[in-house]
Fold:
Amino acid sequence: MAEHASITLHGAAGEVTGSCTLLRTPRGSVVIDFGLFQGTPVDERRNLQTPEIDWPGVDAVVVTHAHVDHCGRLGMLPALGCDADILCTNVTADLLPRVLKSSANLQGMRLDEWKTGTAPVARVVDPPPPPATTPQRGEIEPPVLYGMRDVEHVLHQIRGMPYATWRTVAPGLRVRLHDASHILGSASVEVEWEDGGRQRRVLFSGDLGPDASPLLRARAPMPDVELVIMESTNGARDIPRTTAGPQALGEVLARVSARGGRLLVPTFSLGRAQLVHYRLAELARAGRLHGMTVYVDTPMAVRAAELVGRHPELLAEIPRRMAEAGNDPMEFDGLHKVFNRRHSLKVAAGTSPAVILAGSGFLDAGPVLHHLASLVSEDRNAVLFAGHQLPGSLGHGMLHGARAIELKEGIFEVKAERVHLEGYSGHADRGDLLAWLRGRAGGKPRVVLNHGEQATREALGRTITEQLGLEVDLPKAAATIAL
Ligand SMILES: [Zn+2]
Structure:
């Protein structure tokens, strides 16, 4: 057991994926998140190098939320000899089995595609992209980190717990969760331990949601701690949230519907999909769907939407009141849920006015690609990007003026309208992060920034020191901070 307490960032240090942080204390050790590195095929192979942690000696793994960049490596725990409890909120415990099984499936599928040379084609061809400096998909073997049997094993370790309730993980060491309002069930993790007669506390923010979400209740205020590890994804900019209001989406629907077209929304299944879905439900109730049918074409997003209706206590006031009165805020006339590929292909073959929410969010794989093939070359249609696009992805290329793209079905001229409504981002922006720190329960905590690009961390760090007078650390990956 450690003589002094320390924190080590094993991922998401100067980047936005691969979250994994170790807290060692004289009372025991806790790992916060064990997520996937995502991005290029080279980034994906980094997942094979597991953090140097005494895994069998870990007292608990705490998962902040069900996004794969925070939980996607949990399936590796059996091979690492870690059978500690995996603690998370009850909603996250409900989502994790699906997320981990889907991740195991996807890893197997990616390997098969690589072996057979059938990886999906999804790229910009005009303007021609600059020559790649790193291996592209299909040129490098994708890693298989764990299989379904590992996932089954890990599922027995998951323990859902309520918010705001302490749970002892070792004598003198306990944790509690606070609502982070990033996606349904997301949490910040407070850890407390006893050290020579005094209580010491640190907080891991996890991903934080914006100040005001139309769907989720407000974030919990930051508790009184000596140190906070805070995410900084959007920490260098202020996001215009009005673009996530019903007005902006309503105008897009009116325009596309007047042309008799279809609107495709590439989306991530957890978080972003529910926000857009909820706005569509609001518009439906206001009679402003303009006769368009809405398809939600990813089983995970369908499941997450069901959880919204079942957890009124986690919602913003308007949807909460609806849910408490027995009216599911996510249900409306004209909503169709798509559960399998056959149904999805049938939807893609249709031409009647419709809104289609489909994964993946970066337009790199999944059902969204056959929808894109069916509608991208007609100018009556539109593709709506609800948030950030990863540089190098087809989504990023589409947003930045691609004239022609190549998909499995062939080469397509891009004639569909492109719309960018970045207000749907589920991450707090600079103002939100500062407000969260400012509203803290007390004290002058040391701030450690993670989960942000290096330039973003630096900019936010300067702002925090200037405006709030707090000391800020930007540790490199695997560097240890003494407490
Ligand atoms: Zn997240």
